[in-house]
Write a structure and sequence with these properties.
The chain has 230 residues and is mainly α. The chain has 6 helices and 2 strands. The chain starts with 8 loop residues before the first strand and ends with a helix.
Length: 230
């Protein structure tokens, strides 16, 4: 039973290496890009819509509604980033039910990279909405003495976001391996079903937490705009 796909090295030259995490990540990205192209190449506004377009519209509208409920408006602005995070984590987790497939989300390096993307996006949107002075002022509220604690809070929640996803995926794989060792004829189907359910849940939780962190960076400015409009 392997804990992480990082241990499988496909190619190495001096300090450069390509392990299973990198290879499978790019494979997943390639499949997602090709799938997106195939689904969107024949979109229609009128007439009979294909099943794929109907599925795509349901998925996009559902994600936009969730983003709006998180306090991010307009949701279409945040959809490409948050939707990409959700689909990548979801696709990686769902494929883990295939024997021999090593989910890149089972690697701490992958989950850390995803968390860093969220960490960078928060100040980018915060500065865009509130200005650099208004955003940086958030770190010295309610007093300037809170500056180091607010900075530590930003870093710690990024670390927690990475470790949470990695820990849940890794623990799920370990539990599945233990159960399959104990009763290989009884648990395979049950564990595959459980893996599908937990994969969807973990992708949803990761995307929701990312939306919550981004909303925290732009929320004050949105409230101010609503007060001006009211």
């Amino acid at each position: 039973m392997e804990i992480t796909p990082d241990i499988f090295i496909f190619w190495q030259w001096h300090g450069l290496k390509i392990n299973a995490t990198i290879a499978i990540t790019w494979f997943n990205v390639l499949i997602l890009v090709m799938g997106a192209w195939l689904v969107t190449r024949r979109l229609r506004r009128e007439g009979r819509l294909s099943r794929w377009q109907n599925l795509l519209e349901v998925l996009v509208s559902g994600m936009e509604e969730q983003i709006h409920d998180m306090g991010l408006a307009p949701p279409r602005e945040f959809l490409p980033f948050l939707g990409s995070l959700f689909l990548f984590v979801l696709f990686s987790n769902l494929l883990s039910v295939i024997p021999g497939y090593l989910a890149p989300t089972g690697s701490l390096s992958t989950t850390t990279a995803l968390a860093i993307c969220v960490f960078i996006s928060v100040p980018l949107w915060g500065i865009q909405r509130r200005g650099i002075i208004g955003y940086l002022r958030m770190y010295i509220k309610p007093s300037v003495f809170m500056l180091p604690f607010n900075i530590m809070g930003e870093v710690s929640r990024t670390l927690a976001l990475a470790v949470r996803l990695f820990g849940n995926v890794m623990s799920g794989s370990m539990i599945a391996g233990i159960l399959l060792t104990i009763a290989p004829l009884l648990f395979p189907v049950l564990m595959q079903l459980l893996g599908l359910i937990t994969g969807v849940i973990q992708a949803y939780i990761f995307a929701v937490l990312a939306a919550v962190y981004i909303a925290a960076g732009v929320q004050i400015e949105q409230q101010r705009e609503q007060q001006v409009q009211g």
